[in-house]
Design a protein that fits this description.
Elements: H1 2-13, H2 16-39
């Protein structure tokens, strides 16, 4: 526990502008992880659309 107390005392002794610069990489990493987590979220499961009958569509090329 002494190590934690010494670390907190060291942080308290640092100037505010240096603490800001020290915190920037952690803030950027947290924002990147949050954005990645949002991108990897599973979408809401929805019912599959019914497939249309295999009728010929307008303008479709016919083989032959």
């Amino acid at each position: 526990m002494n190590l934690v107390t010494e670390f907190l005392d060291w942080l308290a002794a640092l100037p505010a502008d240096f603490l800001f610069l020290l915190a920037i990489p952690f803030a950027v990493a947290a924002a990147g992880l949050a954005a990645d987590r949002l991108d990897r979220r599973d979408p809401v499961p929805r019912a599959a659309p019914s497939s249309p009958a295999p009728a010929a569509r307008r303008g479709a090329a016919r083989p032959g």
